[in-house]
């Protein structure tokens, strides 16, 4: 039951910041939202920002940058909610950033089915990652 409560909190926090909107004629934001739980027990959120010049950022990376800004770098869980309210796995750029954060990032849990609380681990999403030998 504890697992469900943790995922429910992350789903809630992601949906809390999700707010699809036009920021300007060039920028849309908030269609996708993410919440991350750190090893220290803190939750950081972020939304996607899509721009006309490909300078946008995914919700997961937005949340991760907030986490880093606040002095943390170790993630336990991530929940990303798409514009249909469904949990979605990270894109390749997000997977790479997550893996580069910490030697134990392969164990980060990522929600992939919010109705049944099914998650996968990062090492399943990015097997045989190239950078393990750089961590000492």
Note down, in words, how this protein is organized:
There is one protein chain. This protein is α+β, with helices and mostly antiparallel strands and 136 residues long. It contains four helices and six strands, in the order αβββαβαββα. It has helices at residues 2-17, 59-69, 92-101, 122-125, and strands at 21-22, 27-38, 43-51, 75-81, 109-113, 118-121. Strands 1, 2, 3, 4, 5 and 6 form a six-stranded mixed β-sheet that branches. The model has no long low-confidence stretch (mean pLDDT 96).
Question: In a nutshell, what does this entry contain?
Answer:
With 136 residues, this protein is an alpha+beta fold.
- The parts where pLDDT drops under 50 for at least 5 residues are none
Strand content: 25-35%
Helix content: 25-40%
Count of helical stretches: 4
Question: Which class do the helix and strand fractions yield?
Answer: alpha+beta
Mean pLDDT: 96
- The total of beta strands comes to 6
Write the H/E string, N to C. HEEEHEHEEH
Radius of gyration: 15 Å
Tell me the distance between the termini: 36 Å
* Major β-sheet profile: 6 strands, mixed
User: Shape from CA axes?
Assistant: globular
């Amino acid at each position: 039951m504890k697992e469900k409560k943790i995922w429910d909190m992350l789903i809630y926090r992601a949906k809390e910041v999700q707010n699809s909107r036009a920021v300007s004629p060039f920028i849309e934001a908030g269609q996708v939202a993410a919440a991350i739980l750190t090893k220290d027990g803190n939750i950081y959120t972020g939304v996607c920002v899509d721009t006309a010049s490909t300078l946008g950022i995914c919700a997961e990376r937005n949340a991760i940058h907030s986490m880093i800004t606040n002095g943390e770098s170790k993630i336990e869980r991530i929940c990303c909610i798409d514009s249909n309210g469904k949990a979605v796995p990270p894109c390749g750029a997000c997977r790479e950033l997550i893996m580069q954060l910490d030697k134990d990032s392969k164990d980060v849990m990522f929600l992939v089915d919010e109705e049944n609380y099914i998650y996968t681990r990062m090492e399943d999403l990015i097997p045989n990652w190239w950078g393990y030998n750089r961590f000492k």
